[in-house]
Structures are given as C-alpha cells and as structure tokens.
From TrEMBL:
Protein's recorded name: 3-oxoacyl-[acyl-carrier protein] reductase
Source species: Granulicella sibirica
Keywords: Oxidoreductase
NCBIfam families: PRK07231.1 (NF005559)
Superkingdom of this protein's organism: Bacteria
Length: 247
C-alpha cells in the first residue's frame, strides 16, 4: 500500500516549481491533492492532468491564501471534495532582494503578507479540520542560514516561518498535528530562472559553493516533504530540515 493512501492533502502555490513537484509526489504515494494556485489556472490544471494521468486524484482550486476568505475557501474545497484533511503544505511564497535603502513599505507588505500571514491563515483554517491529527509542512528557505546581503526582507519573512513552525509544533502537538519546516537551497524552477537563476556565471558560483555540486530540483524538495507527511515521520515535529545540498 502507498504511504499516503486515503490521505487528503492541500498544497498552496502548487501550479509550478516546488509546489507542483510536491503535489505530484504526494499524489504518487496515494494522497488526494488540492492543487492551489493564485493566478496561473492553466498551469494548475496541467499539474492536475499529470496526476490523474498517472492514476492519482487531484483538483485545482484558485485562492489567495494571504486573505482570510481565500485560506478558508481553500480548506473548505478540500473538505467538500474529499471529506477530510490530513496534510497541509504551506508552499506559497514570493521573494525579493534589495539593499536597505531600496526597501519600501510595498515590498515589505508583499513579502510578509504572502510568506508569513499566508502560512498563519491557512494553518488556522487547516488545523481546525485535522480532527484526527495531521501533518503541516511549511516551506522555508536556507536563506535564514546564509543571511546574504540584500536579503533582509525575504530572510526576515522566512525566519518568521522558522519560528512559527517551532511554536505551532508545541501548540498543535497535543492535537496530534505535527508541524515541520523544509528549508530548500536554490532550486531550478520557472521563477528562479525568470529572476536570473539561469545565468551561467551565477549558477556556476552557486554550484561551486554547494558541497553536493549541483543546484536543487523540485523533486529533491518534494521527496522530503512527502517523508514528513507520512507515518515514516510520525515522531518528527518542530524540525527545521535544511535541504540544500549542503549550501
């Protein structure tokens, strides 16, 4: 039997990149998956089609998880479609880099609203439905270990996710809800390539700094998330798991 057979999962920001990889990995292990998207419905539908073609079960649902009605609507969609909720992956996020003097109120609001408030709102809505326990996995970043110049706002938002993870693991533990955080290093995604991640010199520098000698792929993150969602990680909560090839 697959590790997640009979389980229901919600993955935020799952229309592409890491989120899409996570959704496919959870479905491959038997979970029914709600593929959340904000704007890119076509890509989310494509993820669902790929899951269904492989024998899995999934739906796409558009929602802005940084708004209360969006977060609640997303969780409600999981309950209406599949009857319960066992796994929540808070993957939605934005990143922005700027020196101190270039930081604006708008950039702060944009990053923190999605990366921090979105996690809180979706977890609020999801935890209420995990009446038989469950697993919540937050997608953080190794930026909180590297603390690079120009990353103050992004690193600050992900440091908040680290702290929220550890606090809620204690708060939700008595309800048999595990809360963990995966901290990816640089991953080859559509977004990272659009922001210059495909630049050969920059890529050579990142790879040169990485002990395992390569940039990450969505599947590298998805496999760890799937482990944390499963009973293989039944004794794991409050963990901040660095998944960055050693970077």
């Amino acid at each position: 039997m697959s590790k997640l057979s009979g389980k229901v999962a919600v993955v935020t920001g799952a229309s592409q990149g890491i989120g899409a990889g996570i959704a496919k990995s959870l479905a491959a292990e038997g979970a029914s998956v709600v593929v959340n998207y904000l704007k890119n419905k076509d890509s989310a539908d494509s993820v669902v089609e790929s899951i269904v073609a492989s024998g899995g079960n999934a739906i796409a649902f558009g929602a802005d998880v940084s708004e209360p009605e969006g977060a609640e609507g997303l969780i409600d969609a999981a309950i209406k479609s599949f009857g319960h909720l066992d796994i929540l992956v808070n993957n939605s996020g934005v990143y922005e880099f700027a020196p101190l003097e270039a930081i604006t109120l708008q950039s702060y609001d944009r990053v923190f609203k999605t990366n921090v408030l979105g996690v809180v709102l979706t977890t609020q809505a999801g935890a209420k439905q995990m009446t038989n326990g469950g697993s919540i996995i937050n997608v953080g970043s190794n930026i909180t270990r590297m603390l690079m110049p120009t990353s103050a706002i992004y690193a600050g938002s992900k440091a908040a996710v680290d702290a929220i993870t550890r606090v809620l693991s204690k708060e939700l533990g008595p309800k048999k809800i595990r809360v963990n955080c995966v901290m990816p290093g640089p991953v080859d995604t559509e977004t990272s390539r659009a922001m210059g991640g495909g630049n050969s010199e920059q890529m050579k520098m990142i790879i040169g700094m990485t002990p395992l000698g390569r940039i990450g792929q969505p599947e590298d993150i998805a496999s760890v998330v799937t482990f944390l969602a499963s009973e293989d990680a039944a004794w794991v909560t409050g963990a901040l798991l660095l998944n960055s090839g050693g970077l």
